Amino acid sequence: MNESTEMVVRVVLIGAGATVVMDAWLMLLKRLKVPTLNFAYIGRWIGNGPGFRWARDGIAKAPPVRGELLLGWTAHYAIGVLFAALLVGVCGMEWLRAPTLAPTVSVGIATVLIPLLIMQPAMGAGIASSRTPTPLLNVLKSLANHAVFGIGLYVAALLAAHLA
Question: Is 124:52 a contact under the CB 8 Å cutoff?
Fold first, then answer.
């Protein structure tokens, strides 16, 4: 396998693996009765298509779209792979062969800016959940979720390096 192919395969494995770790975390939170994101809402936001409004009063009030849950989950995993590509783009092939924790947690935490500054406002929650009853709690939950994603990047990178 050439180096470019190896990099792509590892990026996909790391991104998907880290997303699985994050999903396991979200499942644990759900079992503990902590509200988590409904991925159908991401699918609904994307699926409302070319005429979609960037910001809404609340995505739950938007018209449902066919297959929104599948679309939301697909986007969730694609974003995880894109974040892994960002990590590898910054750290390079040497890091892929000998992963370290600090870059993964840094990237994981940095990625929290996407939901805080783009997705939450787009879905009607405001910048950093400012239009919700508990903005600070929601920001802290997002930060924790993305820190867990960062740890997942590390775990998945270790497994990918081991498999190679």
Answer: no
- How far, in Å, CA of 103 to CA of 22, rounded? 17
Burial classification of residue 138, based on how many CB atoms lie within 10 Å of its CB (0-12 exposed, 13-18 middle, 19 or more buried): buried
Q: Which residues contact 150 (CB under 8 A, 6 or more apart)?
A: 18, 104, 105, 106, 107, 108, 109, 111
pLDDT tens digits, one per residue of 141-152: 999 999 999 999
CA distances from 123 to 41, 111, 112, 115 (A): 8, 18, 16, 10
In the chain, which ranges are continuous DSSP H helix?
3-31, 39-47, 68-97, 101-110, 113-114, 120-122, 135-163
- Annotate 88-127 with b (16+ C-beta within 10 A) or e (fewer): beebeeebbeebeeebbbebbeebbeebbeebbbbbbbee
What tokens does 46 get? 């994307």
For the chain, the domains span 3-36+76-163
Q: Which two tokens stand for residue 34?
A: 């902590």
Predicted TM-score (pTM) of the model is: 0.91
* Beta carbons within 10 angstroms of residue 30's beta carbon: 11
